[in-house]
Design brief:
By secondary structure, the protein is an alpha+beta fold. It has helices spanning 12-35, 64-71, 98-117, 147-160, 198-210, 212-219, 234-242, 248-252, 269-279, 292-297, 305-311, 344-362, 374-387, 403-421, 426-442, 446-458, 464-481, and strands at 44-54, 76-78, 84-93, 123-125, 164-169, 173-178, 189-196, 224-225, 228-229, 259-260, 315-316, 318-325, 328-339, 392-395, 399-402.
Length: 492
């Protein structure tokens, strides 16, 4: 949910100064793209994962502060809800055994954190939406103590001018309201980072947008919310609504949502930052002391704090990132659309599919997005979120096709090629993409397993809440055992 900020109120003057500073940063960014060296040499990849905290019964544990104190690792941080924490896995090179190294680091960090947090009865669960969440967990008191979360919630509600409505039709129907953005805390995600050269950014981002539907369908892991069975990846609809600053009237006028798939293929990374500053008013108009023009002309690399903060309050599913590390600027794509879990190996398999596909599709002589309308890509995305691994989408040269067939026949071979081009060792590539292959062959991912497990418990216990709890407990056991989800036993 962004960088730390202090609790405060904002004046009209704050907003005027901030808008001017964002535009000044944008001008400097444009100059930097033409003058500065953004090269990354060997591209690095990174992963952020959000976790739910549960007690020994699989119920939400509202104690992230206690858990973080017990874990005592700076890689773990707070998130929006008291039942959330996040890990930022240090970036590493992707070539060779880099993905395997990243997997081992994540597994070790999770095991160590789980062991420590268990001492305060807070167990880490990687899942898109926690099935045992109930309406009482969506109160204002469930927001983490960090002032930035309360401030962001206040600003979104103020911009909206009314309570947030959550309306999702799936197998069941959910129709509820909230007076904070706490429903967003139910959306726990995996965020994949990829360093990209400026000249490759547009093609890589376009490729990422084109395959977003495939990622969501194959990786879906969020079928339940507040006791209802909704979409296979309910996170997508929930996040779009839980942080929506628009009233019904503004929606009718075509005002863009802050959770934004986008509206066109791009030709430069600048397009995205410029759209953000042009379309979206400030949520957190905090002005930094740095003068980016003076920094640039002095031969230093400016932080562009206002541009980065503003960019962090526009929730694109593939977000552009400008960052500075060791005095050098670089660009990243932050792929934000995947749920957390089900296991570490499933997470790394999802990552391998993404990195491999964007590598090869981004370098294609006849790119897929030249044959696919942007609107079709967005429609694919929401269809995949609704139907998961059994979704059908539109794909150039094929027409409407089952995602499983598309992945097995066309996209997996391309992902293998892309990972080979990135220098990933054959054994690592074969193992991780083999997990994706088996998911598509069996038709089983996190969402389908959860739905089957819940149906089993619903037939044998009284009440949906108890069936959700037993499903969560069983999911937690398999998650920590570590076998990929397509190998988990089913009740059929």
């Amino acid at each position: 949910m962004g960088q730390d900020v202090d609790a405060r109120e904002f004046s009209r003057e704050d907003r005027t100064l901030y808008r001017a500073k964002v535009r000044r940063c944008l001008d400097v960014f444009a100059r930097m793209l033409g003058e500065h060296d953004f090269s990354v040499g060997h591209p690095q990849v990174g992963i952020e994962i959000e976790f739910n905290l549960v007690d020994g019964r699989g119920e939400p544990a509202m104690k992230n502060a206690e858990a973080l104190e017990a874990i005592a690792d700076p890689d773990f941080q707070t998130e929006l809800g008291l039942f959330n924490v996040e890990i930022n896995v240090p970036p590493s090179r992707i070539d060779g055994t880099g993905l395997e190294t990243l997997q081992a680091a994540l597994r070790d960090d999770l095991n160590a954190a789980q062991h420590k947090a268990a001492g305060v009865d807070a167990h880490l669960l990687m899942i898109g939406i926690l099935p045992t969440l109930q309406d009482g967990h969506f109160s204002r008191e469930a927001i983490s103590a960090n002032p930035r979360y309360h401030l962001l919630s206040e600003q979104i509600l103020a911009a909206r001018g009314e309570d947030i409505e959550i309306l999702i039709d799936g197998v069941d129907r959910l129709d509820t309201t909230a007076d904070t953005i706490i429903p967003e805390a139910a959306c726990t995600s995996t965020q994949l980072h990829l360093q990209v050269e400026p000249e490759d950014f547009a093609t890589t981002w376009n490729a990422a947008q084109a395959i977003a539907a495939v990622q969501v369908a194959v990786g879906a892991n969020s079928p339940f919310l507040l006791g209802r069975q909704l979409w296979h990846e309910t996170r997508i609809a929930l996040f779009e609504q839980a942080t929506d600053t628009r009233s019904e009237e503004l929606k009718a006028q075509g005002v863009r949502p802050r959770v934004f798939f986008g509206e066109r293929w791009i030709t430069s990374v600048f397009d995205l930052f410029e759209e953000n500053s042009r379309y979206f008013p400030a949520l957190l108009p905090i002005v930094d002391d740095e003068d980016p023009v003076a920094e640039l002309e002095a031969g230093r690399v400016p932080n562009l704090a206002e541009l980065r903060l503003h960019n962090g309050t526009v929730y694109r599913w593939n977000r552009p990132i400008y960052d500075v590390a060791d005095g050098r600027p670089h660009l990243r794509i932050e792929n934000r659309l995947l749920p957390a879990g089900p296991t570490v190996v499933d997470t790394m398999a999802n990552a391998a599919l993404f990195y491999g596909l964007v590598k090869v599709l981004g370098a294609s002589e006849r790119p897929v997005w030249s044959q696919l309308s942007f609107r079709a890509a967005e429609d694919n995305f929401h269809q995949a979120a609704r139907d998961g691994i059994d979704a059908e989408i539109y794909w150039p040269g094929v027409g409407h096709v089952a995602v499983r067939e598309l992945v097995l026949r066309q996209l997996l071979p391309l992902a293998h090629t892309g990972l080979t081009q990135l220098g990933v060792d054959d054994d690592v590539r074969t193992h991780l993409l083999g997990v994706i292959e088996q998911r598509c062959i069996t038709g089983r991912n996190g969402a389908t397993w959860l739905i089957e497990e819940f149906a089993h418990h619903s037939a044998s216990v009284d009440g949906r809440a108890e069936a959700m709890r037993l499903t969560t407990v069983e999911y937690e056991r398999h998650m920590h055992d570590g076998a990929p989800v397509h190998e988990w036993p089913t009740r059929s």
